[in-house]
């Protein structure tokens, strides 16, 4: 700009000089010095014009080069945008496929479908690997761009976004790896137990009585339970599971009775109410109830009530929660499915399982039995509110100590039910009726009667009320005795 100003200033001087010279020429007074000065100005004018033309040419060349550079940059930008759009499209496609596979994996849990579960699991892992490949592609492309010096802030934002998308799936992969390791450890433990059980069976002595042999077989049944899980359903496994049911029933009943006493319940009246709701209200029933309470045996009446509720519908394949007839339409496949569910569920924590699948078949069973055992007034009296009941009615499962103890009983009964429908033929379920003559081959008394200073249980007693049901196994004819509370014959 300064060059332009000086140029105009010189031009004005030259024009002025030219006017003066022309005046001199007209008057005939132009000298040789003036002519030389005019020549000088003309040459300077010509030089300036040449410089201006050169500057204009250089500006045109710069503008043309800038246009070419802009065009190249625009093409590279468009190519980069197209590449990123394709990459993002593949990411969205992989995430959608991942979601579909995960939904299929969840659906395979309820109803239980091992084949579908395996296929869905393979698909989930494949989509996770695909997302990992896309992440590496993005990192490499960003590295090239960063080394070229362009768009650093943009690639950082894009990388952060992609990390947020992929992070949950990476966490899922790590969780699956941990589960695989835990399963491997469990397999090793089962192998050690198998070796131990095999060595014990080989070193057993045969010169023992029949009763001692049966006792030994019952004791070893619990140690061989894990082995039976890995092979096929067996009567010994059913017996061991029934023992777990008895233990869980006693534990839950003890907790319930403790809560009733803490809430200052009238235990005598409570037991009498339980008996009245289950049996005919006769004078005999009332006297038996009074004697039970007087002998501090209220826990057996309460356990009888709990078992009667939790075993109701045991003979049906779904406890009459629905009208399924799979065991009749395809019995062989149904038996295999039941045993597969038993093996998969045996090592699961019921609280964690229901936290993932609260409305599966087992979840519905737990909700139905809890509402049947713990009625509204009982819960309000024991806990002061109905919070647990509301959660169960809404399809959830409380994480309280009381509900956790109930879930252990519910899981034991559910596993026993799965085993019953895994055996061919299934076990026969029976229950001693009130007033029936005590039969030691099919019944087991929870108390002993004082007969003239002697604690005996024999043919002179009758069943006061059943405590837990019994089973007759059709595979080997073994009988799991029904537990009963006996009273003297009237």
From TrEMBL:
Domain GIL1/IRKI C-terminal: 430-485
Biased composition (Acidic residues): 34-63
Domain of life: Eukaryota
InterPro entries for the chain: DUF641_pln, GIL1-like, GIL1_IRKI_C
Domain DUF641 residue range list: 80-205
Regions of compositional bias (Basic residues) in chain numbering: 203-219
Region span, Disordered: 23-66, 191-224
Protein name, as recorded: DUF641 domain-containing protein
